[in-house]
């Protein structure tokens, strides 16, 4: 009798141990599943942030649904690395097997005709646009040749107002994202026509920053003549690089162009 009770008692204890082990296993499995779900969510969040920043919110154009296509304007002063940013963004697409379409202004041939190049030494071939050209028709024609995940336009300040509207229609009707890179203002502190239209029509605007010699953010640019003196008159468009243009903060731009008040001039 006592032996029977002992056996039943041990069986009960073993059963309880098995139940506890099972419960622990279930809890551990639940924790593992929860951690896996968190990792998936984090990975998805990072991926979505990258896709948002690169305009990769949908599949390639023509034959695919691109509900999130937008017109972007990346603006700055001279020598802020706009072309570098453009080429890097295009590379990010192509690295993932997506095709891009690059365009630049015909009148800017500093890097060679039909080429976008950066001061740090990277570059890529690009199609050319010129004033009064229908960019909606040009983009439509390019899309008939194959899918394009994103269109990149350098020297966007040289666009005409109507051409910016054509880009907006391409985004809306052709469902392809377009990223424009260009200067905001000229050496006289006036908006370029293309930049003014992009500031009005772009879905998103991002500033590429550089600094003045004083360390503050540069927002203006001055033009220098062959004698090194600051110019305050002349045509709005004159192609040139570091030897021609210098980026400054507003205060030092005012001083350089003779617009500084005496008290501010004393502090420079």
Supply database-style keywords.
single chain; 268 residues; alpha/beta; Rossmann fold; 2 domains; 6-stranded parallel β-sheet; 11 strands
A few lines on this structure:
The chain has helices spanning 2-54, 82-95, 135-143, 161-174, 193-201, 250-256, 262-267, and strands at 71-76, 100-105, 115-117, 123-125, 127-129, 150-153, 178-183, 204-207, 220-224, 230-231, 245-248.
Outline the fold blueprint.
Blueprint: H1 2-54, E1 71-76, H2 82-95, E2 100-105, E3 115-117, E4 123-125, E5 127-129, H3 135-143, E6 150-153, H4 161-174, E7 178-183, H5 193-201, E8 204-207, E9 220-224, E10 230-231, E11 245-248, H6 250-256, H7 262-267
Parallel strand pairs: 1-7, 1-8, 2-5, 2-6, 6-7
Antiparallel strand pairs: 3-4, 9-10, 9-11
Helix pairs in contact: 3-4, 4-5
Q: Can you tell me the CATH architecture of the largest domain?
A: 3-Layer(aba) Sandwich
CATH class of the largest domain: Alpha Beta
Would you tell me the structural class of the helices and strands? alpha/beta
Q: Reading side by side through the largest sheet, how are the strands ordered?
A: 5-2-6-7-1-8
How many helical elements? 7
Portion of residues in beta strands equals 15-25%
């Amino acid at each position: 009798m006592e032996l029977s009770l002992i056996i039943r008692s041990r069986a009960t204890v073993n059963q309880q141990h098995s139940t506890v082990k099972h419960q622990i296993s279930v809890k551990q499995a639940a924790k593992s599943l929860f951690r896996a779900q968190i990792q998936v969510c984090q990975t998805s969040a990072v991926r979505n942030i990258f896709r948002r920043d690169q305009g990769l919110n949908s599949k390639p154009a023509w034959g695919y649904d691109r509900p999130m296509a937008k017109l972007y304007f990346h603006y700055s002063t001279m020598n802020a690395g706009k072309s570098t940013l453009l080429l890097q963004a295009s590379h990010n697409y192509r690295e993932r097997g997506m095709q891009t379409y690059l365009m630049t202004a015909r009148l800017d041939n500093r890097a060679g005709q039909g080429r976008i190049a950066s001061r740090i030494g990277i570059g890529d071939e690009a199609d050319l646009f010129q004033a009064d050209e229908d960019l909606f028709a040009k983009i439509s024609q390019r899309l008939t040749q194959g899918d394009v995940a994103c269109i990149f336009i350098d020297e966007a300040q040289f666009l005409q107002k109507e051409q910016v509207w054509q880009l907006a229609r391409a985004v809306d009707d052709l469902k392809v994202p377009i990223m424009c890179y260009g200067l905001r203002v000229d050496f006289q502190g006036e908006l370029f026509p293309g930049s003014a239209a992009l500031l009005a029509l772009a879905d998103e605007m991002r500033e590429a920053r550089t600094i003045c010699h004083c360390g503050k953010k540069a927002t203006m640019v001055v033009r220098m003549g062959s004698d090194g003196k600051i110019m305050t008159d002349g045509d709005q468009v004159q192609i040139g690089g570091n030897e021609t243009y210098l980026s400054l903060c507003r205060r030092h731009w005012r001083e350089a162009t003779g617009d500084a008040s005496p008290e501010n001039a004393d502090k420079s």
